[in-house]
Design goal:
Mean pLDDT: 96
Protein name: Dihydrofolate reductase
Organism: Zhouia amylolytica AD3
Strand order of the largest sheet: 5-4-3-6-1-7-10-9
Strand content: 25-35%
Family: Belongs to the dihydrofolate reductase family.
Pathway: Cofactor biosynthesis; tetrahydrofolate biosynthesis; 5,6,7,8-tetrahydrofolate from 7,8-dihydrofolate: step 1/1
Distance between the termini: 13 Å
Shape: globular
Oligomer: single chain
CATH topology: Dihydrofolate Reductase, subunit A
Radius of gyration: 15 Å
Number of domains: 1
InterPro entries: DHFR, DHFR-like_dom_sf, DHFR_dom
Number of strands: 10
Number of helices: 4
CATH superfamily: Dihydrofolate Reductase, subunit A
């Protein structure tokens, strides 16, 4: 089951200058819980936004750069190749960025989206979710608190067969 995982604002903003524009510790914990032990597929810029590779996950980086070879990663030049490498993982995760999300919307089975309840100026956006193709199957609201400057909702969408 190919799963897209993302956090996006009400206006679908993902980030700016290769960084998130909010800090939600509970969302980071959920990301870690869901993706640990799995393949995580991402674009080069997303990978480069990490201080180091994330522990206990197989990193697959998609790039057009033929000489790109970061330590601890598998480097490919297409989403198709990344998915081929991930075929033995029951749940590979597509973790961004914007272009990789767009490419993966037609092949994913599930979307785990954290909807941040605000709008942000950004340079990277999550694609629109076509509700003719996707059904909301789960929703869990989290209000703003002393650790979270914004309210957010975990949304799970599954592809309509």
């Amino acid at each position: 089951m190919i799963t897209i995982i993302a956090a996006a604002a009400e206006n679908n903003a993902l980030g700016k200058d290769n960084d998130l524009v909010w800090h939600l510790p509970d969302d980071f914990k959920r990301f870690k819980q869901l993706t640990t032990g799995h393949h995580i597929i991402m674009g080069r810029k997303t990978f480069e936004s990490f201080p180091k590779p994330l522990p206990n996950r197989t990193h697959i980086v998609i790039t057009r750069q033929s000489d790109y070879n970061p330590k601890g990663c598998i480097v490919v030049n297409s989403l198709e190749k990344a998915l081929e490498i991930s075929k033995n993982d029951e749940t590979p995760f597509i973790i961004g960025g914007g272009e990789i999300y767009k490419l993966s919307m037609s092949v994913a089975d599930k979307i785990e989206l954290t909807r941040v309840h605000d709008e942000f100026e950004a340079d990277t956006y999550f694609p629109e979710i076509d509700l003719n193709s996707w059904k909301l199957t789960r929703s869990e609201y989290h209000g703003k608190d002393d650790k979270h400057g914004f309210a957010f909702t975990y949304l799970t969408y599954e592809r309509i067969k």
